[in-house]
User: What shape does this take?
Amino acid sequence: MLELSYVCGAIALIVLSILDLKDRRLPVVLLIGISIALAGFRIFYFQYQPFLWMAGGVLGVGFLLISKVTKEAIGYGDSWIIVLLGIFLGIWEVILLLLITFFITGLVGMVLILRKADKGTGIPMVPIVTIAYLGMRLM
Assistant: This one.
């Protein structure tokens, strides 16, 4: 069942990545739907290390606060995805996911600098999170 949930998570992230690349926004309705599905999953798998996934959610809430304080330098939708992944994966896996995500983001940033991109050029985060997630699942 956990393997199926990882595949469903990958599909959800791929859909969200496409939307993030296309519109630079994540539909709240879709995020709510994914949140409800995740809540259902956690109800059935509550005994599966609850402290770890609760701590992962708390880490994600920290990103929501950062999003609020920085006036969405990290988008609110991106932060919501981190909350959901924190609850889904647990604290240690979401930390690894974020480390990989920030590393890839740094590489993308260097490419943008070499291409003389504008200082205000934004980098959509969900596609990079998806690449990190798929990399973790395939290793």
